[in-house]
Design goal:
Largest sheet: 6 strands, parallel
Helix content: 25-40%
Shape: elongated
Oligomer: single chain
Mean pLDDT: 81
Number of strands: 18
Order of helices and strands: HEEEHHEHEHEEEEEHEHEHEHEHHEHEEE
Number of helices: 12
Low-confidence stretches: 78-83, 336-368
Strand content: 15-25%
Number of domains: 2
Distance between the termini: 32 Å
């Protein structure tokens, strides 16, 4: 789950705790192209149509706002084509909404040609259950949320990273996890660019640098900046499977302190700046003096980033963020034999709709700061 989904759930819980009517919409199926992937969520407040999150490019959100606020203003209205749906809302039962079945409707709602989107709408979710869900996510727990489609009741269970969205005639099961986090070692110009990009991509960012001259001049994104030694910062960060750590200080004394613990953590990505010669020296140093084995060192992305010929801090930050996102999204990266180029294997995204049958595409880029 990205930080946007957590933001949606937190805002929805706040609305419901205040006694306000609100709806949670989840993308449960797509056919063809769709603006947002399965599992995307949006919350809508009934009194004024306030929205957080997204299920499309905007047109579907506008339709949901118009429908829900109209019903909220006059819940006893009958005799319309939407009578069945209004009754479902009145009873608080979950409802399925499908957009884009016809070419005219697809055009009206801004869906790509042939695109169809199915949503599951929940009306006035239980605020107590929402509070329990948000508290578990804030504690770093993966949670499986099971919605009973017949009565709207919700159960929460421990989730697994492999759990995906599942929809049956009686249940909607979705897995939510804590937001993605990034720890940067070194507070230089590269960290300023990379932290801004990471925040834009939904990461909660912490920057560690015990050097006052770097930390004191921080002018990047409004992130958490700490003065701890890197090994202490990694321990306090408590990396999990939704965490990444990138060493950017160019000072082996600092970067190595972070990498020793980071490489033995659950972090999905660990990277370090530096030339290939420096990376080879680091590998030998950490294995010889700190007892890290070859398999552990193989987890290190070094030089960090895709090779795109980048020279400036901004361009290097782009290359690092691209590689981090590729790992986060499960895109396999492999070096091509006899070349410094990086081959990016992009799998066809799985949806609960029909597959396009297209072969996976391949984009060839390089490795940054090499």
């Amino acid at each position: 789950m990205d930080n946007l989904s957590l933001h949606v759930l937190r805002q929805l819980q706040a609305w419901r705790a205040q006694g306000q009517a609100a709806m949670l919409a989840t993308v449960v199926r797509t056919w063809g192209s769709s603006p947002r992937p399965v599992g995307s969520v949006m919350a809508l407040r009934g009194d004024d149509g306030s929205v957080v999150g997204s299920v499309s490019g905007g047109c579907i959100e506008d339709d949901l706002i118009e429908r829900y606020t109209r019903f909220h203003a006059n819940p006893s209205a009958t005799g319309t084509a939407r009578k069945g749906a209004e009754t479902a809302r009145l009873c608080g039962l979950p409802e399925t909404l499908v957009y884009g079945l016809s070419a005219d409707e697809a055009h009206r709602f801004g869906l790509p040609c042939g695109g169809t989107l199915e949503l599951l709408a929940e009306y006035d979710p239980d605020p107590q259950r929402l509070g329990e869900l948000v508290a578990a996510l804030d504690a770093g727990t993966l949670v499986r949320r099971i919605l009973n489609l017949r009565d709207g009741s919700v159960q929460l269970q421990d989730g697994a990273a492999t759990d995906g969205l599942m929809l049956s005639e009686t249940q909607l099961c979705t897995t939510f996890g804590p937001g993605y986090r990034m720890l940067l070692i070194g507070a230089g110009a590269l960290a300023e660019y990379l932290s801004s990009m990471a925040v834009s991509c939904g990461f909660a960012v912490t920057v560690c640098d015990p050097r006052t001259e770097y930390r004191g001049n921080w002018s990047g994104a409004p992130v958490q900046v700490v003065a701890d030694m890197p090994d202490d910062a990694v321990a306090a960060f408590a990396p999990n499977r939704r965490s990444c750590i990138v060493a950017l200080s160019h000072d082996p004394k600092l970067d190595d302190l972070a990498l020793i613990d980071a490489l033995q953590s659950q972090a999905f990505y660990v990277g370090a700046i530096g030339s290939r010669r420096n990376q080879a020296a680091r590998r030998e140093r950490l294995m010889l003096h700190f007892g890290l084995d070859a398999a552990t060192m193989d987890r290190l992305h070094g030089p960090t980033g895709l090779h795109i010929g980048s020279k400036t801090p901004a361009e290097i930050a782009v290359s690092i963020m691209a590689e981090v996102l590729a790992c986060k999204n499960g895109v396999a990266l492999s070096r091509r034999a006899g070349s410094d180029m990086m081959a990016i294997e992009t799998p066809v995204a799985a949806t609960s709709g029909r597959s396009s049958g297209a072969a996976p595409s391949r984009v060839v880029a390089g490795s940054a700061n090499g």
